[in-house]
Design goal:
mainly alpha; single chain; 47 residues
């Protein structure tokens, strides 16, 4: 369970760090991926 969460979070951050320029859309997409990874790992939404 934690391996999957770690992989998803690492992948999201790696994807955004590889961008030449951060845009609002890049950040929104990354935050959405992080949120989904946390929800799939049964982490409470307010966290």
């Amino acid at each position: 369970m934690f391996e999957n969460l770690q992989d998803r979070l690492s992948g999201s951050l790696r994807k955004i760090s590889g961008q030449a320029r951060l845009t609002e859309d890049n950040i929104k997409d990354t935050l959405r991926e992080v949120r989904m990874a946390l929800l799939e790992a049964d982490v409470a939404l307010p966290v």
